[in-house]
Fold:
Amino acid sequence: MPEGDTVWRACKRLNQALAGQELVRTDFRVPSLATTDLTGRTMLEVVARGKHILMRLSGGLTLHSHFRMDGSWHLYRPGERWHGGPDHQIRVVLETAPWTAVGYRLPVLDLVATDDEDSVVGHLGPDLLSPSFDRALAIANVESSPGRTVSEALLDQRNLAGIGNFYRTEVCFLLGLHPWRPISAVDVPAAVDLSRRLLKANVRNGTQVSTGVDRPGQRSWVFERAGKPCHRCGTTILTAQLGEPTRERVTYWCPACQPES
Structure:
C-alpha cells in the first residue's frame, strides 16, 4: 500500500499539473458518480492528508480518493498513450487543456463539500508530513492505549497519519523494538520523531530508504527481507502475520536486534 510520502509526491505532481486549470471534460466510471459532470469547474489545489488525496474544486466541492493497495493517478499530455492499466481499471478521467489525469483502480472515490471534508478525513490523527504537525497530540494518541502493540499503534491512522508497513517495520528495527512490544514499554516520542524524519527524508529522495543506501536490496533493514541475514548482525530476518486490527499485514524483524524483552 502506498504510504504517506508516496501519496504526498503524487499530490505534488497533480497539483503542479492541474491547479488553476479549468476542467474541460470529466468521466466518472463508478456507479455512485456515474452521472457527475464537473466540466467548467477549476481545480484549486490537490493536497494530501495522510494517505488520502483531496482535489479541491471551485464551487465548494472536493474529490476525495485513496490508493489502498494498488490505486494510482497518472498524468498524460494530449494525444499521449495511456499506460496505467487496461481501460476497465479506469475509475475517473479529469481533462484540462494541457493535462489529463486518469485514476486507475481507485477503491475510494467520493465527491464531498469542501466544508465537509472531515466526513472523509476527520478521523485521522496528525499528518506526519504536515508543516503544522501536532507532535504532542500524536504522542498522546499513541500513548492512550498502553497495552497495544507498537505495530498496531503506529499503523493506526487515527493516532498519526502516513505510516504504512514499510515505515512501521523499519522504525521498530531502528529503535530495537520487537513488533509485539507493548506501547507501555516504548519510547513513544522517539518512535514518532523517527517516523516523521524518515517520511520527510524520503519525500525529498523519491524512494523509500531507511538504511541511507539507495540501492536495490539495501534500502531497508528488515522490510521484505525474510530469510535474509540482518545487515547489522547477520541473524536471519523473521516474518509473521499481524492480526486485527491491522488486517493481517506482514511484519519483519531481526530476533537479535529486536528482542522480545
Remarks:
- The two ends are 30 Å apart (CA to CA).
- The domain at 4-121 is CATH 3.20.190.10 (N-terminal domain of MutM-like DNA repair proteins).
